[in-house]
Write a structure and sequence with these properties.
alpha+beta; two-stranded antiparallel sheet
Length: about 80
Amino acid sequence: MEVENKELTFEEGIEQLERIVRELEQKEVPLEQALNLFRQGIELVQNSNSLLDHAEKQMQILLENPNGELEIRPADFPVEG
């Protein structure tokens, strides 16, 4: 089963990733299948991170500047490692 990351929404990607994790937690998954599932999971994580990065860049927040006026600035979120 091939993962089509480019067409998945964030939520669909997370659902597929959760399914893959459940499958990998089974003790009787053959090695080749486990490696394939792991590869698909990595692709899903990368796609989800890309979607989150894109969404973060699009978000803006309304802030008050030092003069007391409201202005729109790009959101600046701290990145956790």
